[in-house]
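Lab manual, section 2.4: Encoding a predicted structure.

Procedure: take the sequence of the chain (242 residues), apply the prediction step described in section 2.3, and record the output as structure tokens. A sample record is shown.
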Amino acid sequence: MSNPNPTRSRTDLSRRSFVTGAAWSAPIIAVAAASPLAAASATCTQDAQISWSSTFTATDTRNGSGTFQTPSGEVVNYTVTVLTGVNIEVPATSDNLNTTGDGIFLGDRQLVAAATKEFDGTYTQTTTVTFDQPIENIRFRVFDVDGSEFYREHLRVTGLPGVVATPGNRVELEPVSGTYRPTEDLPIGPVIAGSVSYAASGPTSSFTVELTTPRTAVPPQGVLSHGVRMTNLTYAAACATA
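Recorded output:
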């Protein structure tokens, strides 16, 4: 997604084992081990959601933190940290880390033009989400992945165990860089963006969203801010206790 006039806004984004035995059997000693939320020791699990707009607060356009409570009452803290390559910036007036009801915005602005619109790490913004305890089976979608005659967005997510990435319409996998990119470049304005859904199968304490936006030239509209939006996070949690 491109924005010719970025402004910063902060409004609205066990299995339980039962052991039985005869009266003469040796006593059973149970040892509890540290485990992620909704671990196999729970009898019941349910989907829960981390809402960016109600749990996250940005301290600036590169950092923020949040806190949420699981259905079973556990409190989880998390941080968000943004790093950038040498050819892009995240201005203080940027919408980066701005939240709304449907997610959080991840965006940047190019400092120089690249020779091509192919993947180039110097144009990469990395956004890392870190939890203070493992979260099970995280799922989310990144949307507004697009391109024009002047730029192309490349998307990659790392750190999720057993992750399955499912591209939507107008997005394809670029096998060399392992990133998802738009299948076609359209004029700025009537851009029809694509999306990619991600589903992890296991616990994770941290994952990273990489957005790379190389461009060939400065468009007539001037320097543009490019970005995508990540939806609220869904995860598997132990059910609330009675």
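Check your result against the sample. The helical segments are 52-55.
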